[in-house]
Amino acid sequence: MGWDPIRKRPAGTVTPNLLDYERTRADFSWESARRQLTGLPGGGLNMAFEAVDRHAAGPLRDKVALRCRDRAGHTAELTYDELRRATNRFANVLRSLGVGKGDRVATLLGRVPELYVTAIGTVKNTSVYAPLFSAFGPEPVRERLRLGDVRVLVTTPQLYRKRVEQLRESLPALEHVLVIGDALPGTRSFSEAMATADDEFTIPPTSPDDMALLHFTSGTTGKPKGAVHVHGAVLAHHVTAAYALDLHTDDVYWCTADPGWVTGTSYGIIAPLTHGVTMVVDASDFDAHGWYEVLQDEHVTVWYTAPTALRMLMRSGAELAKRYDLSALRFVASVGEPLNPEVVVWGQEALGLPVHDNWWQTETGAIMISNYAAEDVLPGSMGRPMPGVEAGIVATENGRLVEVTDPEAVGELALRPGWPSMFRGYLHDEARYAKSFVDGWYLSGDLARRDAEGYYWFVGRADDVIKSAGHLVGPFEVESALMEHPAVAEAGVIGKPDEVVGEVVKAFVTLRPGHEPTEDLRSELTAFGRRRLGAVAPKEIAFDQHLPHTRSGKVMRRLLKARELGLPEGDTSTLEVGR
C-alpha cells in the first residue's frame, strides 16, 4: 500500500531480547531453549510450576504477580508466593472433589482474581483448564461443557442462573459448580471451599505431553471444536513472549484479551508469569479514557491488545492519548485479526510507538509470525516467523502441496509441525484433526503472500477471498485502503454474488465521529477506493456503525455476508454483544 517502514528506535534502557533475527534463527533449537525453564524437581514439566512456583521459591517470592483492578477501580494484589499458595488451595479443592489428572475444569468468569487462581490451580493438579466466554448464552455454554466432558465449573451466581441452571440436567458430566459469592442450590461457595483447603500441594508427576488446556474454536456452521494443548506448550509460550512481546522480568504487562479466548490464557496468564513480570488485570469493559488511565496509573511497559480496540482508540483521536502520561510504555503489540497499516502509523503518532502485529491461531497455541522490537516495522505486515518455526506459502499442484517460492504469489499460509505448542487434537474428532495436516504441513486456512525479504502479508481467510472478474480480492487489503480515508474508522468487506463477474466487492463502513452517512460521502468513498485499488475497489458501500465482531476483535465477514444474502447465520456464539 506504499507505507514507509517505521524505523527501529535505539534500545534505550532495555535491550531487546531478539537483537539479530537471522543469527538467532540460525542458532535456535527448542532443545536448547528448554534450559530456560526449570522443570519439576522430580523431573517432568508442568505449566503452573513454570509460571508461579519456581518464582515463589526464589528472589521473586514477594514480587507482585497480579495486580487486579475491579470495575470500581479498586486494586488487589497477589505476590508470586501468595499466588502459589492460593493455587495450591484450589488444587487441593479439586483433589477433595475427586478431580484429578485429565479431568476438565472450566471457568465462566470475567477478569477476576479467582479466574487466574482456578486456571493455574487446575493445571497444577494435572487437570485440564477450559476457559469460556462470560458473554456466552446458555446454548453455547451447554455445547462446550458437553463437548469438553467438563466435571467442574467455576462461575458467578448471576452467570449460573442465566447460563447454566436451566441446562444442568442435560449435563450429567458436570458434577460440581463453584460460585464466586453465596452458594445457590446445586452449587458450592468458591471462597468457603478455599478457606478449608491446605495451602501446600505437591504437583504430581507431569509429562510435557500431558493434556493441560482445552480451547474451543467456532466453525462457520455447526459445532465448536475443542483444540487440545499440552504442558509442553509452556516452552513456546515462554520463548515467544520473550521474542515477540520482548518481555523482561522488570516489566509491568497488560494483556487486554478476554480470558475466554486463547490469547487470554497463553499471553494473559501463562507466558507473562513464566517471565516473572507484574501482570495488570482490569475487569472493566473498553473505554478510551479508562484504558489510558490504566496505562498511565499502572505504569504499563508492555501492552498486548487487539486491532479493534486500537481502532476504537484511534476514533478518539491522538490528542486524547497525549493527555495521559504514557512515558512508561515501551512496547505495543496486537493480535486477533490483521492490523491495518494506518493503525501502526497511528500508534507512532499517538503513543510514540509503532504497534507490532503478529500472527497465530488457537491451534498453534503461541505466536508463530511476528514483528520484533529491534527491527523496522513494515505497516501491514505480520512480520517474519519466530525462531524455531518454519512457515511457508503453499498451493496445490498435480494433487500435491508444493511450496510457492515466487515472491508476492498468494497461497495458503502453512507451518511445518513440531513446535511445542502445536495442538495435539480436536477433542473427540480425530478425522477433523487429520484434515489439518497435508503433505507435511499444517494448513492454517489463511491466505497470505511472502515478500522477497521473508515478511508475510495477510490476504484473507481462504473462504473470505472474493473472486471478481478474474481477480482474487483479499478483503483485508480493501478494508485497509478504505481506512486511509479520514472519515472511516473501520470497514468490513465481502463478496456479493453477481451474474456477470462472479462477485462484486461490497464494503460496510463505520464512520469516525463528526462524519454523517450521506450519499455525497458514499460517492466520495467509492471514488477514493477506485483511486487506491483500481479494479478491485468496492462497487457498493453501506454505512454500518455496529459491525459484528467476535470477542477476539475480528470483524465477522461471514455474518455480514449471511445477513446480506439472507442466509443462516451459523455459529454466532463468539459474537461480541453490547459494543
Mean pLDDT rating:
92
Walk across the major sheet and give the strand order.
Answer: 2-1-11-10-12-13-14-15-16
In the CATH hierarchy, the third-tier topology of the largest domain is known as Rossmann fold
What can be said about the biggest beta sheet? 9 strands, mixed
CATH H-tier superfamily of the largest domain: ANL, N-terminal domain
According to DSSP, the number of beta strands is: 28
Contiguous helical run count: 18
Q: Label the CATH architecture of the largest domain.
A: 3-Layer(aba) Sandwich
User: Over all CA atoms, what is the radius of gyration?
Assistant: 23 Å
Distance between the termini: 30 Å
Question: How would you describe this structure to a colleague?
Answer:
- The chain is built from 18 helices and 28 strands.
- The strands form six sheets. Strands 2-1-11-10-12-13-14-15-16 form a nine-stranded mixed β-sheet. Strands 17, 18, 19, 21, 22 and 23 form a six-stranded antiparallel β-sheet that branches.
- The longest helix is centred in the N-terminal third of the chain and has 17 residues, at 80-96.
- The radius of gyration is 23 Å and the shape is globular.
- The chain starts with 20 loop residues before the first helix and ends in a 14-residue tail after the last helix.
- The model has no long low-confidence stretch (mean pLDDT 92).
- Keywords: Acetylation, ATP-binding, Ligase, Nucleotide-binding.
- It is an enzyme of class 6 (ligase).
